[in-house]
Amino acid sequence: MPKVVYPLDSTKSFTDQQYVGHNRWHPDIPANVTVRPGDVFRVDCREWFDGAIVNDDSADDILNAPLSTVHVLSGPFAVEGAEPGDLLIVDIVDVGPIPQEDSGPLAGQGWGYTGVFAKSNGGGFLTDQFPDAYKVIWDFRGQTATSRHVPGVSFTGIVHPGLMGTAPSAELLARWTARETALIATDPHRVPPLALPPLPDDAILGTLSGAEHDRVAAEAARTAPPRENGGNQDIKNFTKGTRVFYPVFVPGANLSMGDLHFSQGDGEITFCGAIEMGGFIDLHVDLIKGGMETYGVHENAIFMPGNVDPQYSQWLAFSGTSVTLDGEQRYLDSHLSYQRACLHAIDYLQKFGYSDIQAYMILGAAPIEGRLSGVVDIPNSCSTVYIPTAIFDFPVAPSADGPHQVDPGMGVPMSAG
Ligand code: ZN
Question: Per CATH, the architecture of 3-304 is what?
Fold first, then answer.
């Protein structure tokens, strides 16, 4: 096992650990740990809500999920010799749940969860169809996930960090804030909001305190969106064996990561989110000096995905076009066509006895693939969602026998609120 350079004690909260991480992006959050090019090291990561979500049959914790506290990130890690303009090479050597035999109270200790936020608290990709809060608990056995809330389904997880990235420069941070603030101004009272402005409340900024903490808290960017530094990209294939090339914007690069997922479908359509968990990640780092210019990597990281995907060979795919549910034609709207593809799949799975929210949860958590199949055939874009047939313990393709009926069991808990 590589040296643990960033340990977390599962019995303590994020702010009571040996190293206090952060939940905002800012160039002035000091690095906690320094590593060298060539080092391999282990980092523990808290589940993104720092343990606020529990293993039970109620979604009230999702309804009240404290969005101002996310994401609790491990780091920053300074890489010796890294300078603005370099590319930081990060290899994901290994990644997994909290390495402990017994199940415990924290997501990652033998279990994880998928939630859907209420429309009033962040919403999700299909928030018009699912405006309430929901939660599903998934149990882990080796690489496999099953759920008491979604019978008849089991699948191999592609474990990955939802979030990893380098610190922005002051200039880059100012650009983020300007453009996101301008977007919010186009519809400032929208529910859910168009973007999340800086929010000093609940900002955790490593070792900063006093006036310096307050200054940085007022400026620091929220961690929800992916940006030029990588960040919350939520790429399901970002697993063991992945090599990422991050632009370096500040001396030391100041790499951070968290939001580990046991599994996720393309798009992370449930938003809260994939199968969320705490765990560990083993990393190797190196540098390409001046690599941003050499390779033209100025905007966003590039990466080579890991090659440990499950071997699913048969898929049932659903398509959608850019026509609204009310029948209005939109122009090449791939977001809409992906929604329609997902709703198509949800309608289909209900024929087998699943509730609509059970079907939604399957698409959010299982390793389904989403594709932009056509983006030029005016006026309709065509998006598709591919579901591996082997995740169901019954035949799921259409046949003359009609759909097998699954016992929906206790179903998916919905919040009382
Ligand atoms: Zn996540």
Answer: Sandwich (2.60)
